[in-house]
Design brief:
70% helix, 168 residues, 2 domains, mainly alpha, three-stranded antiparallel beta sheet
């Protein structure tokens, strides 16, 4: 139904052949009165349920109503039709999702770089302090003063950001 394969209109003769082929009663013959009556009764019921028309040759044809055919569609067919009908909405949602993901990744990357720079700053300060203490123990004059001045000139990225944007 979704791919559009198969005949839409089936002739009365083909429909009767299908009934004969699949059989209403097992072990019945075409001459059996019960079989003939059941076949005629089935054709009457089919006339009431299916759409009918007469073609140019005067042969009666049957078609399953669209509402009934719709209820027998496979899930994959329904899903394809839903996607086709809502394609613009889906594209907008995926675009927003991609944009949001990009923003979040940029935010986390900036945060990671800031934390890494701050970590390196603290490592440099610790190294300078250790070097100053070792110099002092060796007898150098005022090594801590040089280390503390250098450390004071180094700002952490957070302090630098606060000073740059004027939010103290």
């Amino acid at each position: 139904m979704c791919d559009g394969t198969g005949a839409i209109w089936v002739s009365e003769n083909n429909l009767k052949n299908m009934l004969d082929k699949h059989g209403l009663f097992q072990g019945s013959t075409a001459d059996d009165v019960k079989y003939v009556f059941s076949k005629e009764r089935a054709m009457e019921d089919i006339n009431g349920v299916l759409d009918t028309r007469t073609n140019s040759n005067g042969v009666k044809e049957y078609k399953c109503p669209d509402v009934l055919a719709e209820s027998y569609k496979p899930i994959t067919c329904r899903a394809r039709q839903w996607v086709a009908n809502n394609l613009l909405l889906l594209l907008a949602v995926f675009a927003q999702l991609a944009g949001f993901t990009t923003l979040v990744l940029k935010f986390w990357r900036k945060r990671y770089l800031t934390k890494r720079a701050e970590h390196l700053y603290h490592q440099v300060c610790d190294t300078l302090e250790d070097n100053a203490l070792m110099s002092k123990s060796m007898g150098d004059r005022e090594p801590w003063l040089i280390a503390s001045r250098l450390r004071d000139h180094l700002l952490t990225p957070r302090k630098e950001e606060i000073l740059f944007y004027g939010k103290w």
